[in-house]
Amino acid sequence: MATLSNTPKVKLGIVGVSRDCFPLSLTRTRLTKLMNALKKHSVQAERCAVVIENENNALKAVSDLVRKGCNAAVIYLGNFGPEGPATVFAERFPGPAMVCAAAEENKAVLAADRGDALCGLLSCSYNLGLRRLAAYIPQSPVGLPGELAGSIADFEHIARVIIGVQNLKIFGFGPRPADFFACNSPIQPLMDLGVEVMENSELDLYRVFRNAGTKKKEIRTVATDMKKQLGRQGCPYPDLLPKLAQFEIALLDFLTDNLGASEFGVFANKCWPAFPGEFGFVPCYVNGRLAERGIPVACEVDLYGALSEYIAQLASLQPATLLDVNNSVPKDVLGDGADLKGAGLADLFMGFHCGNTCSSCMKTCSMKYQLIMNRLMEGGGKADITRGTLEGQLRPGPITMFRLQADSDGELSSYIANGQILDIDCCSFGGIGIFAIPGFARFYRHVLIAGRFPHHAAVAFEKIGKILHDAVSLMGIDDIGVPLSPTMLYDGENPFELFDSWQ
Questions:
Q1: How far is CA 61 from the centre of its chain?
Q2: 122-131, pLDDT tens digit by residue?
Q3: Based on C-alpha coordinates, what's the Rg of the chain?
Q4: Which of 66, 233, 281, 455 is 20 to 30 Å apart from 159, CA to CA?
Q5: How far apart are alpha carbons 205 and 172 in whole angstroms?
């Protein structure tokens, strides 16, 4: 996994609970076995020194784990457990919580050492509802230590998403271009998630950029790093690198100076039509370099796109990108016998953007100019102000596409789909790849279009659909679109089109 700045580090705490009419030793013994299983799964966690039997224990347990630096907690029912004190702990602990319970090990324990945690978990869940608390409860919440260890490992990723979102600030520069009203960004739902928003003008951005021009030594250092990263074949415009370096320094300076009470920050910046003419370049390559460091920069002032890309980064612990769900794939691009990874031709699409995907997420890449803007702003002539994209074929392999969005009424919804980027030349320009997602044609029509989602999708270069679904659900979002099997209908789908036997 990549080492990313601007990303929370999760430190798990494990606290056992025990109902006072059950032997305390039962929870302690089972907790020891769970901690050993976590070590075998390479999950690092702090064991709470307190086992919770009453509310005073719950308060002491919170203090113990906070003192140990824990920012996420697992409540482990070693037996039935006291539902009141257990949920008091969840309410007071300053971080996301997971609840799971011990299964009975064998028939020998049934005579006198039965834990009854299956029953206790129902009571705990009811009490979480009474307190209006959201806790992560895995698909199989009652299990033996080795089984629960895998779920706790998943929770570490889920907790990272929750902690990151609740401590995030999104910096926006400029209003959305007139042709991109689809990237609407109602602020209230972001604030409800715990996300801070700071919106600024393009003039603010230009001033920050000009101020960074005084840092000559830093500009030379960053420009040298850019040249090294691009390599001899990938750097056709060495004269442009100092400008791009100055812009990168400007954004990083602004992030440092304006985080305020937040811990993490991302950007959603206007990048056209005025930007190239005033700044003298397009910012795509710089956007990708910051994403590679863990600081996504969404195009076209797409605040929810920036948030979606950051969530994908948190769930995968790898740089992510933001792409247009862009165009269909002609059959002659594929060649004979292409492996479509379970998808049909109609399920393929090209994910594209001008050149904002970082180099580590590309198979091939070099700096170029933005062809569409060049036609618009430079008449299709020799490129100058439209230079600065990073173009080539996206890295083939497993992916997850993801979007979290609020509609014009302020209602949050999401979609998640696992798939593959095919190792096939797209025969086109930009940062681009052929995506294969089984069932995508119906998913596109009945989730993306019917759900009124924008054209931008966050892409993680790993299959993390399971983690994202649980994380988004824990945020309180119930409307999560996913690809359905051929035998299941989407809301509003015409059954007479889906089932041939009904014709």
A1: 31
A2: 999 999 999 9
A3: 25
A4: 455
A5: 10
H helical segments located in 46-144: 55-67, 83-92, 117-130
| pTM to 2 decimal places | 0.95
Residue type, 97: A
CB within 8 Å of 87: residues ≥ 6 apart: 124, 127, 128, 130, 131, 133
Burial of residue 98 (CB within 10 Å: 0-12, 13-18, 19+) is buried
The strand pairing partners of 362, in sequence order, are 394
Cα gap 156→284, rounded to integer Å: 32
Tokens of 164: 């990151």
Say which amino acid occupies 495: P
Nearest Cα neighbor of 183 from 332, 404, 396, 433 is: 404
Nearest Cα to 453, choosing from 184, 133, 149, 159? 184
Residue-wise burial string across 264-301, b where 16 or more C-beta atoms lie within 10 A, e elsewhere: bbbbbbbbbeebbeebbbbbbbbbbbbbbbbbbbbbbb
Q: Which two tokens stand for residue 312?
A: 């994908």
List 350's β-bridge partners, or say none: 327, 434
| Residue 20 CB coordination number (10 Å) | 9
CB count in 10 Å sphere of residue 134: 15
pLDDT tens across 10-27, in order?
999 999 999 988 889 999
What would the two tokens of residue 472 be?
């988004």
Structure tokens at 497: 């089109």
Residue 12 near residue 70, CB atoms below 8 Å: yes
**Residues 39, 177: Cα–Cα separation, whole Å:** 51
CATH number of 12-165: 3.40.50.1070
Contact between 77 and 118 under an 8 Å Cβ cutoff? The reply is no
pLDDT tens digits for 460-480?
999 999 999 999 999 999 999
